[in-house]
Amino acid sequence: MSFSPLIRQLIDALRILPGVGQKTAQRMALQLLERDRSGGLRLAQALSKAMEGVGYCRQCRTLTEDDLCPQCADPRRDDSLLCVVQSPVDVFAVEQTGFRGRYFVLKGHLSPLDGLGPEAIGIPELLARVADGAFTEVILATNPTVEGEATAHYIAQMLIPKGLTISRIAHGVPLGGELDLVDGGTLAHALAGRKTIRL
Amino acid sequence: MSFSPLIRQLIDALRILPGVGQKTAQRMALQLLERDRSGGLRLAQALSKAMEGVGYCRQCRTLTEDDLCPQCADPRRDDSLLCVVQSPVDVFAVEQTGFRGRYFVLKGHLSPLDGLGPEAIGIPELLARVADGAFTEVILATNPTVEGEATAHYIAQMLIPKGLTISRIAHGVPLGGELDLVDGGTLAHALAGRKTIRL
Lengths: 199, 199
Known about the structure:
Chains A, B: It holds the Pfam family Toprim_4. Two copies of one chain form a homodimer. By secondary structure, chain A is an alpha/beta fold. The first copy, chain A, has a domain at 77-168: Dna Topoisomerase Vi A Subunit, Chain: A, domain 2. Chain A has nine helices and six strands. Chain A has helices at residues 5-14, 22-35, 37-53, 70-73, 88-96, 118-121, 123-132, 146-159, 184-192, and strands at 55-56, 63-64, 81-85, 102-105, 137-140, 165-168. In chain A, strand 1 and strand 2 (63-64) form a beta hairpin. In chain A, helix 1 packs across helix 2 (22-35). The longest helix of chain A has 17 residues, at 37-53. Chain A is globular and about 65 Å long. In chain A, 30% of the residues are buried. The mean pLDDT of chain A is 91.
């Protein structure tokens, strides 16, 4: 019992942040109180504005406070490419690569055991988006996990009959690091997906 | 440019937290938006209440929103012992040890080069507190750094003439770990401060 109630409440509230335990929360609370109260107030405002104001893009369903997210609203993007991802944070990851097509964000992956079927993760909306758009290729960029693969496979089954090119991001060894640290499954994919070198 | 303005502002604001960089701030912002909006709002409220409401204890000068902090307000504590620390977080550390005397919190350590003299860190208030109280011993628990030692030495010089016992927390090898990993200065202190074993 050595912190006053307001400080204790702040420490408890900070612990909802991912990766923040008791000790880190304490350090954060005391540092804000002692060194940066205006920064703390700014954070409080940014939090409440974002929690109350941010919704989902009407078209791609990523997080945004506008009707359309910056990616959907940008007229200079390639309208023939659609990249399907599992969550809004993946949009950011794919953007970093320089991809400049359109996006569609699922709500996670198919998980029948948890009751998450095609409707729950937004497959009907994806089919509607594909039907509306002028896409020639749909890139399936769900996570390289069992569930992500299953989700990609399911979507491919639905879209291939529509005459579109459906692609999956490549599996293989990541850049950097050493071959003996790569797991067997990844290495098997990398071997099976080998490419002929042409000089 | 792939996050909307409100999300970008939230990510920027989260970066004022100690130890939080761009990537962690992104993960925190998206996790709150996707999974725990009510937690995010609770955090916003706790932050603004604490930043606006928390001040300093009238007696020991630790952080609290009340006139007296829980330690000063507790009538069951030992009024003969005063523990002097450098910052509010140290009160918590010393409390963990089971110490149940009184505290006085300095504002950091003496640092003449930064213009921080005895007045700036609150030595006059410490002397007044000692004069008011019924202390028989003052424990100097400033940090075991050059500046912390200098601050402890300065305070000892001021208080010893008043006929009080002035003590400094012991330096030595920490519990656990191995001797060859302890730095030379610490080991020298541990040797110099060795204690006779009595069975």
